[in-house]
Amino acid sequence: MKLRDFIAEALIEIQHGVQNAIVRRDESGIAGRISPAFPSPHQIDWTKQIEKVEFDVAVTESRTRSATGEGGLDIVIGKLGAEGSTAVGHSAVNRIKFSVPVLLPVQVTKPEGF
């Protein structure tokens, strides 16, 4: 799997998962909120709603290129050694750590409206 596809799918699945949890909570009538946002006094400060999704993935450089000449980084599924790299066949595997800021779905609520 290409690294870009993995990142895109992970971020989209997180967004869907939070939204599904909000909807299911509303439908079940459970008290409380999931990902609450509090307007004050009439607006929500969206900068306070930003979360960071952290990634720590193992990648290997693709040695083959397609007819279009496109290469890239592929996700390696497996366990890394203590040093954070290992070998798969003749390719070196490395770890990449990074985070992506995201604005998750929110439930707008008033503090007294929990």
Mean pLDDT: 80
Q: What letter string, H or E per element, gives the SSE order?
A: HEEEEEE
**Pairing-aware structural class of the strands and helices?**
alpha+beta
Task: Classify the helix fraction into a percent range.
Answer: 10-25%
Q: Strand share of the residues? A: 25-35%
Number of domains: 1
Q: What general outline do the C-alpha atoms trace? A: elongated
Count all strands and give the number: 6
Instruction: For the largest sheet, list the strands in their spatial order.
Output: 3-2-5-4
**How many helices?**
1
Distance linking N and C termini: 42 Å
Instruction: Using the CA coordinates, give the radius of gyration.
Output: 20 Å
Largest sheet features: 4 strands, antiparallel
Q: What are the segments in which pLDDT stays under 50 over at least 5 consecutive residues?
A: none
Précis, in short:
By secondary structure, this protein is of the alpha+beta class.
Detailed description of the structure:
There is one protein chain. By secondary structure, the protein is an alpha+beta fold. The chain has one domain. It has 1 helix and 6 strands; from the N terminus they run αββββββ. The chain has one helix at residues 3-28, and strands spanning 36-37, 50-61, 73-75, 86-88, 91-103, 107-108. The strands form 2 sheets. Strands 3-2-5-4 form a 4-stranded antiparallel sheet, with helices on one face. It has a two-stranded parallel sheet with strand order 1-6. The longest helix is centred in the N-terminal third of the chain and has 26 residues, at 3-28. The chain is elongated, with a radius of gyration of 20 Å. The model has no long low-confidence stretch (mean pLDDT 80).
